[in-house]
Amino acid sequence: MKFKNFPMVPRVIFGRGCFNQLEEILMPRRINSEAPFIFLVDDVFETNPDFVAKIPLLFGDKIIFIPTDEEPKTDQVDVLVSKIREYTTESPSGIVGIGGGTVMDLAKAVAIMLTSNGKAEEYQGWDLVTCEAIYHVGIPTISGTGAEVSRTTVLTGPEKKLGINSDFTPFDQVILDPELTNGVPRDQWFYTGMDCYIHCVESLNGTYLNAFSQSYGEKAEDLCDEVFYNGKLSKEETQDKLMMASWHGGMSIAYSQVGVAHAMSYGLSYLLGTKHGLGNCIVFNHLEEFYPEGVAKFKKMKERHNIELPKGLCSNLSEQDFETMINVSMGMDPLWENAVGKNWKDTITRVKLRNLYEKM
Length: 360
Ligand code: NAD
Ligand code: ZN
Fold this sequence. Notes:
Layout: E1 12-14, H1 22-26, E2 37-42, H2 49-53, E3 62-66, H3 74-87, E4 94-99, H4 101-113, E5 125-126, E6 136-140, E7 154-156, E8 161-165, E9 173-176, H5 186-204, H6 211-230, H7 235-254, H8 260-272, H9 276-284, H10 292-304, H11 319-330, H12 333-340, H13 350-359
Parallel strand pairs: 1-9, 2-3, 2-4, 4-6, 5-8, 6-9
Antiparallel strand pairs: 7-8
Helix pairs in contact: 3-4, 5-6, 5-7, 5-9, 6-7, 8-9, 8-11, 11-13
Bound molecules: nicotinamide-adenine-dinucleotide and zinc ion.
């Protein structure tokens, strides 16, 4: 048996207001005045001049606002890369992604593709990247996905939804400033936060579990409990703790895998474009059979925060639609193997998945 040798984020700063230190953090990374920093920023901030004013622009630095109603696509990465190449003849000093999982994943992918030939879709998979990415910084503004620590960037391509998993994917620097999560809408806060909770449940109840993953997963689950379940925290404590839960949840799955909710929500996402956090919640709500305690607690948290999940997502789908979703979901071998074990195909049948999807 060979063990994976993981890269980790080498530098991280944490604290309320630490975003103000971005200028001094980037300064030593400026190659020269001709090599700009490119800031990819969630377009929700475009109408927030106070926030935009805090982005430390110098020389030819550029902000590109990113719409987030859809999750990242490989051709979107290619377009951004050619736009940046047109903008600057020098290779940029770095890429800074400011936003949720969508923008952080785009920032990672763009940093990789600026030094790799060809199209982003050619690198979807495991360890296909051979060139070091340019310096890239991740700044989450919503907590839960763990994209700030992970070794992947999840992209939808023409043929598949699959990450660029590589040693060059993790950020060189992460800025954890819980104040940046101030404006997150309540429903979205819950959906993205539950992504973290579901990472914990799937990791802690998986067959791949080991002490490394368990130590991070248990910590993240405790923090999620404090934030969503026991909850006597101030707004500030809630923000601080959820940001750290996301970090630990991401670390937990680095050395294990996610499970049934992710495998099935990839099907929803591929066919219907359902977003990651919401899709996971819709699926997880029906997974008592796999995760009885986790789902029971999830339902209580949902009630506590008055969250109504959309219903009837699959009520008007054709036979072909169901086939597509089931194919995508069943293609996620490692997730099923983690969830149910090596012989997962004995119990996870197409009929079973069809019945589950029909409930959603
Ligand atoms: P997101 O980035 O799509 O953002 C969700 C919504 O929240 C958007 O409308 C955005 O504008 C809004 N938002 C974000 N910050 C805000 C703020 N401070 N104030 C107001 N609104 C704000 O959502 P997400 O759940 O963070 O990310 C989902 C994406 O992450 C998916 O594409 C998924 O595939 C990816 N993901 C990646 C990993 C990884 O390891 N790379 C892990 C899990 C999920
Ligand atoms: Zn997830």
